[in-house]
Design brief:
Helix content: under 10%
Largest sheet: 9 strands, antiparallel
Low-confidence stretches: none
Number of helices: 3
Number of domains: 1
Distance between the termini: 34 Å
Length: 396
């Protein structure tokens, strides 16, 4: 049964009340038509509860806009949802990724994440390519997907909105990695379900790294908003040192937009519940609104918190990652870099859920606290303790 408009409705009752489900819910394909976004295909999802979000087909099927009853969740940066044809991957010394950085979720990978890197390429057996040059956060986020399908699926009296596509990061004498992405949302629900599978389609042994840059904006992010997580340890902070607390902004409670703010990044070691799930939330108690992101510890063993609290760019990032924040060479040195042979795959299952009202926030906080408390200090001393990551490979 579907919960809509204060009542429980069967599929038959929904059909009786409208000539088409699209009157209040559905998924439809559109194309953006102006400025740097011109030509980008976009899927719009509406669940009938006030949850609306868009998926950029031509930007790795990443989630762009997201709102609930008119209240924004996702972050829209000044860069906009730039057409991938305008992207210069190696521009600005590898930082041009920032000119295509916007939306609730930006995917990073598939063979590289974090800052720029020059890595050995001997696995590709091609003399002229001695190394692989990677720019900030890798290539995948600006690659158009091949849209394999979208629509509505009825399971008895439940209706699932869905879309699926394939993003190919491929070259000659190099990686041939495919991201198969499926996004679902239930009519009458307030959650987005994301299922990713990264497969080595080629026949070279290929490295794999993966990260979601999940970016939350106002009004979820506001003065007094709280970061809630089953946080066992603060492993690393980019700004640690003698001036650690200089900004006056700790990891727990967010300020209003700042002027002259330098980004702050933390790596936290998270605990998981009995089923291996890690819920992390940002909540605005003043308006009874929040969002929780749930990942799996065995899929994303690492977690970062990104604070970009600069006026005009005001955002907080929840960033689940396959690897520690010190990057690819650190992973190589510790034998933690995942390698995929032909046909091998990694899977990732993530849920984004709206917290609507004080009761929903309280329930999410209680659940998180039951898994693990978090430090009371705003500036916990980073431990420098990077837990060992073990590879997890499965057949496609």
């Amino acid at each position: 049964m579907v919960e809509l408009f204060g009542r429980t409705m069967s599929a038959r009752e929904i059909a009786e009340h409208a000539g088409s489900l699209s009157q209040f819910a559905g998924v439809r394909l559109m194309t953006l038509g102006d400025g740097v976004e011109r030509g980008v295909r976009m899927l719009e999802f509406r669940t009938g509860t006030g949850l609306r979000f868009t998926v950029l087909v031509d930007r790795a099927m990443d989630i762009a806009d997201c709102e609930h009853n008119g209240r924004a969740i996702g972050w829209n940066s000044p860069a906009g949802f730039r057409h991938p044809g305008l992207h210069e991957y190696e521009g600005e010394g590898g930082l041009s990724w920032l000119r295509s950085f916007s939306g609730l979720m930006v995917t990073c990978g598939l063979d590289h994440i974090l800052f720029m890197d020059e890595d050995d390429a001997s696995q590709y057996v091609y003399g002229p390519r001695g190394t692989v040059s990677s720019s900030l956060h890798g290539r995948v986020g600006t690659i158009p997907a091949k849209l394999t399908g979208y629509g509505e699926r009825w399971e008895g009296d439940r209706c699932i909105l869905w879309a699926e596509g394939i993003v190919q990061q491929s070259t000659v004498f190099g990686e041939d990695l495919h991201l198969i992405r499926r996004i679902e949302a239930e009519v009458g629900g307030n959650a987005i379900h994301l299922h990713d599978r990264v497969v080595n389609h080629g026949f070279y042994r290929t490295p794999h790294m993966f990260l979601y840059h999940i970016n939350l904006g106002h009004p979820v992010l506001a003065e007094g908003s709280r970061y809630l997580a089953p946080l066992k340890d603060v492993v690393w902070a980019a700004h640690a040192g003698p001036d650690y607390a200089k900004s006056g902004v700790g990891y727990r409670t967010m300020p209003r937009p700042q002027h002259g703010f330098h980004e702050q990044v933390w790596q936290h070691e998270m605990a998981a519940d009995a089923e291996g799930r890690v819920p992390v939330a940002l909540v605005n108690d003043a308006i009874g609104f929040g969002v929780v992101v749930e990942t799996r510890k065995d899929q994303f063993p690492c977690h970062y918190e990104w604070q970009n609290l600069q006026a005009g760019q005001y955002a907080l990032g929840i960033e689940p990652s396959t690897n520690h924040v010190l990057g690819k060479q650190f992973a190589r040195q510790r034998d933690e870099l995942t390698w995929l042979e032909h046909g091998e795959a990694r899977t990732y299952d993530t849920v984004f859920a709206v917290l609507d009202g004080a009761d929903a926030i309280a329930a999410a906080e209680q659940r998180i606290r039951a898994i693990s408390g978090q430090p009371d200090a705003d500036f916990p001393e980073p431990s420098g303790n990077y837990p060992k990551i073990t590879g997890r490979e499965t057949r496609a």
